[in-house]
Design brief:
Blueprint (H helix, E strand, L loop, with lengths): L48 E5 L5 E5 L4 E4 L14 E5 L6 H9 L11 E2 L10 E8 L2 E3 L6 E7 L3 E10 L9 E10 L4 E10 L2 E2 L4 E7 L6 E5 L4 E8 L2 E9 L6 E5 L8 E7 L5 E10 L8 H13 L2
Antiparallel strand pairs: 1-2, 2-3, 3-4, 4-5, 6-7, 6-13, 8-9, 9-10, 10-11, 11-12, 11-19, 13-18, 14-15, 15-16, 16-19, 17-18
């Protein structure tokens, strides 16, 4: 793969914004005031947001008022991280991405909670929260970090962007497999939407066997499986507070689920098995609920949120 891929910015498209009110389950206790220890100006207006972060090893991060995530970029291609999705556990409604990166550069690590949340979530080479893999010969075939990015829309109510990934060509294949992952995040939703399209030499790859993974943190977390509602998840406890993560397939895609356990590091997951449609595409949702943020306090509340997401068209 190209170690120095070009990174592409596409100007925001004038698409009509979509505003979704938070569900009852997502209503939170009042957010704490901005942490004065950061010493960084803050706009407390809730908003969606996303950006490429070249100053932190080419991360790409996105958020809304409830949740925040990041994907790993070209600068980390020699490390363990690849196409897994990281969760940043925020407990304030205003944007924190720029603040946490800026604070980290000042010596205030985002792996410690300074009043707004933190990143204790381990990804490594796992799928993290909703990363994809091709399923071949009984094992996951993963891509490396993203090779290009494009922001398509960025408004207060919704942000849309794309990340491109490349999978290694297998024996007998004439070209590597490419994935364009279009991610949308809206206000008031604990999940982001992913529409991934797979092509080879520009041609859509239909009926491609895939898995959507939610790490069980090397077996520490409890796997949650509900294939009849097209979702998998995990229920964990980190530093004394519960964390629910999960992925939900859109209607119309086949779904099977498995609690995949392994002695190999970062290979234990709740896996959701599916296939691409005729256009080489799948659509799914991934997200989390953190007890300390006040949104989801029990596993029953979290599984109800996954069921509710599954019931939506």
């Amino acid at each position: 793969m190209n170690p120095n891929p070009s990174l592409v910015f596409v100007a925001a498209l004038l698409l009509p914004p979509i505003f979704l009110l938070p569900s009852t389950a997502a209503e939170s206790t009042p957010a704490p005031a901005p942490s004065p220890s950061l010493g960084i100006p803050v706009d407390t207006t809730p908003s969606t947001f996303a950006r490429f972060v070249p100053e932190r090893a080419d991360d790409f991060a996105w958020e809304n008022d409830l949740v925040a995530f990041r994907a790993y970029g070209p600068a980390l291609r020699s490390g363990a991280e690849d196409s897994g999705i990281d969760c940043w556990l925020k407990r304030v409604a205003y944007p924190i991405i720029n603040r946490w990166y800026a604070g980290d550069r000042k010596g205030l690590s985002y792996h410690q909670d300074h009043g707004e949340g933190y990143d204790p979530y381990h990804v490594g080479s796992s799928r993290g929260c909703g990363g994809l893999a091709v399923w071949r010969d009984g094992k996951m075939i993963t891509s490396d970090t993203f090779v290009a990015w494009r922001i398509l829309e960025k408004t207060r109510e919704r942000t849309v962007f794309e990340l491109d990934y490349v999978y290694p060509a297998e024996a007998g294949e004439t070209a590597p497999l490419s994935e364009t992952k279009r991610i949308s995040i809206r206000l008031g939703e604990p999940f982001f939407e992913t529409a991934s399209t797979f092509t080879r030499a520009g041609t859509p790859v239909a009926d491609l066997p895939l898995v959507i993974g939610v790490t069980t943190q090397n077996g520490r977390a409890t796997a949650l499986l509900k294939p009849e509602h097209r979702w998998v998840g995990a229920w964990d406890k980190i530093d004394g507070f519960h964390l629910g993560t999960g992925a939900v397939l859109a209607p119309g895609f086949p779904a099977e689920a498995r609690d995949e356990r392994s002695n190999e590091k970062d290979r234990s997951h709740a896996l959701l098995f599916t296939r691409t449609d005729k256009a080489g595409r799948i659509v799914y949702y991934a997200g989390y609920g953190w007890e300390r943020a006040g949104h989801f306090r029990t596993v029953e509340e979290w599984t109800a949120a996954l069921d509710a997401r599954s019931a939506k068209p």
